[in-house]
Amino acid sequence: MTLSGGNAWAVIVLAALFVYSIRFLGMAFGSRLPKNGPVKRAMDALPGTIFAALVFPGLAEAGLPGMAAAGVIFLAVRKTGSVFLAMILGMGTVALLRAVTGN
Amino acid sequence: MTPEFARGFRASVPAGIGVLVYGLVFGVLAAEKGVSAPQLAIMNVAVFSGSAQLILVGMWSGGFPLWQVALAAAVVNVRYFLLTAAVAPLLEPFGKFGGAWRVHFVTDENWAVTMAESRRRRVTGDFLVGGGVCVGLFWFFSVLAGHSLGFTIAAPERFGLDFAFTALFTALAVTMWRGRRDIFPWAVSAAVAYAAFRLLPGAWYVLLGGAAGAAAAAVRGGEEG
Fold first, then answer.
1. I want to staple B91 with a disulfide (CB 3.0 to 4.6 A). Which of A1, A62, A77, B99 is the partner?
2. Residue B225, pLDDT score
3. Between the CA of residue B214 and those of A38, A51, B7, B171, what are the distances in Å?
4. What CA–CA distances, in Å, run from A59 to A54, B22, B69, B163, B210?
5. Can you give the pLDDT at residue A14?
6. Which of B81, B197, B219 sits opposite A25 (nearest CB)?
7. Residue B70 has pLDDT above 50, yes or no
8. How many beta-carbon contacts under 8 Å exist across A and B?
9. Chain B contacts of A84, Cβ < 8 Å?
10. Contact flag B170-A55 (C-beta cutoff 8 Å)
11. Residues in chain B closer than 8 A to A66 (CB atoms)
């Protein structure tokens, strides 16, 4: 199911409200946040753990081409530092393995 | 337009060129997911965050409940809380209302440019906003340009394009890796996410996995970031 019509606009408006709220609340109350301790550690870790949660099930389900591509992407980012290049190489790996295995 | 606004705008042009590349890629992917040009245009202005929009479009065709998609997009942006907290003193002179709309122009790129500049001299809020407008223009037009290119690609799976989001998210995850102290939080995040992915409907796996990983980072002491 793809978002369409009213649902698509609703999700855009809702996300815009949420993201704006974060910007506004940070400006208004951010100075009261602890500078160290558990809350700071959780806030610092959150963006990374969200991406880990987002990516891992998809890679686990993608089978061999997916796992091979993940390895290529990891190496490409660590060696070149380029997200874009890593993404292209990852996609190329999947396309190549599909062509070879005939899927 | 004040001289400070113009200075901020100019100082953010190199960052804007980086945004342009990212915007083109994002636009192609959004076209692939069936997001329309008007929807993207409004999203670019109203959400105005690459990572949030990427999550939004990535989950576009998953059949997830709306609020879960919006919440996942917001949660990945919790760091903005810290960014806008840091520039709050720059926005204070504009008053409550003046600060309230200007804070929307805080992005990773012009925030970093402004913080770097503030080490060398006293910057003002106009410098920050000028940078935000610069980054915003690059973002807006590159995403729409990518979107119009995206529709010309036929049989996307032949080029691995359907894997593009997973590839991009994986690459971004690698850049967020902070070394050994992330092993435990990320392992918790991945395990909880996989269990939730298997057992629960919707996008719970993203929210639960991310929250569990952050909680793991909180309970385990060690060095701070």
1. B99
2. 45
3. 9, 12, 38, 20
4. 9, 22, 20, 10, 16
5. 96
6. B81
7. yes
8. 285
9. 21-22, 25
10. yes
11. 163, 166
B84:A30 CB<8 A: yes
Q: Per-residue confidence at B223, pLDDT binned at 50, 70, 90?
A: low
B97 and B197 housed in the same domain: no
CA-based nearest residue in chain A for residue B87: A27
Report H helices in chain B.
3-11, 13-32, 37-46, 50-58, 66-75, 79-91, 95-102, 108-120, 125-150, 164-176, 183-199, 204-219
> Does A7 map to a domain?
no
Domain count, chain B: 2
Contact (Cβ atoms closer than 8 angstroms) between residue B174 and residue B75: no
The minimum CA-CA distance between B17 and chain A, rounded to whole Å, is 14
Residues A30, B88: C-beta atoms closer than 8 Å: yes
Band (B43; pLDDT cuts 50, 70, 90): very high
In a domain, B130, yes or no: yes
ipTM surpassing 0.85: no
Question: Are B130 and B183 members of one domain?
Answer: no
Domain that holds residue B44: 3-150
Residue A101's domain comprises 49-103
Number of domains in chain A: 1
Q: Which residues have CB under 8 Å from A75's CB, separation 6+?
A: none
Instruction: Say whether both B109 and B71 belong to one domain.
Output: yes
User: Mean per-residue pLDDT for A15-40?
Assistant: 89
More confident residue, A19 or B159: A19
Closest residue in A to B210 (Cα–Cα): A50
Q: What was the pLDDT predicted at B206? A: 83
In a domain, B19, yes or no: yes
Whether B167 is covered by a domain: the verdict is no
Return the residue of B nearest to A37 by Cα. B218
Q: How far is B127 from chain A (nearest CA, A)?
A: 17
Instruction: For residues B185-201, give the mean pLDDT.
Output: 92
Q: For residue B194, which of B183, B182, B205 has the smallest C-alpha distance? A: B205
Check: pTM over 0.80? Answer yes or no.
no
